[in-house]
Amino acid sequence: MVLTGPGSPDFGDVQKRAYTLCQKLPGKPRQFPITYGLCLYHWGRAEFKIAHPLAVKLLETANRIENENAVSSDVTSDEAVMAACNINGMIAFHMGESEQAHAYLTRSVDLYQPDRDAALYPIYLMDFGVFGRFYLALACVACNKTDMAHQHARDAYELAQTLNQPHSVGFSLLANMIVAAQCDEPEVAQQYSQQCVAFSSQFGFPEFIGMSRVVRGWAAAKLGHPSEGLDDLKEGYTLWAAQDLKTGNRGLPV
Question: Structural domain tally of the chain?
Fold first, then answer.
């Protein structure tokens, strides 16, 4: 998922097999994180008619665990609520429900404790503190809360520097880049896009490189270099589109 994106067929095949096997085993072990993984795949494919019911199921489970003040064999209350609100917020954002997305993501981010929750990264394939702030920043822009959007993006970057997670650093750069682009700040967007291309090239994150080149091309065109910018934008979009991620286009400035 880190190298190919959550919408890739290979990632989807793994999640579908895991979910099917989980349903067949006694007690359905690891059902919560496995359901999250399947939901993440359908989110990445923009298949919200499938992803949304799975996300609602996760939220119902999380609320039950929280209300019963219980710890299941799989997840704690805070982990469940944090993960469920994260994925529900992401889905709500892409369905155009920006205020609801803001509420979900705020709840998720508020629960995050780096010393405790950074260890969840290999389970959910994202850091809820960094990625949650990334999407919370996007939701803030959509809700016309641009100052808060910039702050959440900066917080994502600062947090990512403390974690041993290159992918999270990439997401934090995307957060600042996309917020700057959506706020029509081409100089700032150009700075972060160049930084993200250089960083992501070191680690082989084609999704990040593609999105960054789209924004870098947009920024170049805005700053008076339309031909150069259009070439960069086209090549970036081709690279990004090849990753099969269908939900990233709402964050792009084109």
Answer: 1
120-132 pLDDT tens trace: 999 999 999 999 9
Contact criterion met (CB below 8 Å) for 250 and 101 = no
CB atoms inside a 10 Å sphere around CB 250: 13
4 within a domain of the structure (yes/no): no
Distances (CA, A) of 246 to 44, 47, 85, 250, 252: 6, 9, 21, 9, 12
Mean pLDDT of 228-250: 82
On whether residue 84 sits in a domain, the answer given is: yes
Residue 205 covered by a domain = yes
Q: How confident is the model at residue 220 (pLDDT cuts 50, 70, 90)?
A: very high
| Domain residue limits at 198 | 9-251
Predicted pLDDT at 78? 95
